[in-house]
Amino acid sequence: MSVIPMTCASCGAMLGAAGDACRRCGEAAIRASHHEPRDGEGVVVTARDFMLLDELARLRLRPDSPAARELLGKLERCQVVSLDQVEADIVTLDSRVVFSVDGGAEEQRVLVHPDGHTLPGWSLPVTTPRGLAMLGLRAGSTTMAERHGGSTERIDILLVAYQPEEARRRRAATAGRAAPAAPAFLRRPTGLANAGEPPQDGGDLPPAA
Predict the structure, then answer these.
(1) Pair 14, 111 in one domain
(2) Which tens digit of pLDDT belongs to each residue from 137-193?
(3) How far is residue 57's CA from residue 127's CA, in Å, rounded to a whole number?
(4) Closest Cα to residue 91, out of 152, 125, 45, 148?
(5) What is the total count of domains within the chain?
(6) Residues 81 and 13 in one domain
(7) pLDDT of 18-40, one tens digit each?
(8) Would you tell me how many other CB atoms lie within 10 Å of the CB of residue 89?
(9) Are 71 and 129 in contact (CB under 8 A)?
């Protein structure tokens, strides 16, 4: 089942449940705009990414900026899922994506929140045309992004080489596995002391020969 966040009907602030009053403006919560993905679209966003990006678009970007408009538009038509439900081949924030542009050479970038854009040539902010175009799509998808001059480019998403949600699930599965038992030939028989060691229960030493 999809997780659909609640937002204030007036200011868009994230809230807890329907009927809650917004601390910012006092309006009641409503369900965030949510539509099943259209054919060929299939945009999937985790609940965590939705909250981060909704705040970014509404409170931190200029309301009239193209990045804010495009980001809000994508969030309005996306399918929102929990961290445990997102499939491993979906592009989420902090995913490392292998892609090509207009059929060119493969490139790799980590899709990041603008605050995490610290490595030019390695990270790709989600507010860029390419980053926003790939957000929420799965490996094997093709999408279009607008260039600065107004023309468009084709982006082929070849592989999601790393996804933080899948990595977290793998770590949890590994931690939950019981440590394997030692092979039988390495186990010490119960109640027997090693040769050359004195008894461990405080008993008398065997008589000298």
Answers:
(1) no
(2) 999 999 999 988 889 999 999 999 999 999 999 999 888 775 555 555 545 554 444
(3) 9
(4) 45
(5) 2
(6) no
(7) 444 555 444 433 333 333 334 33
(8) 16
(9) no
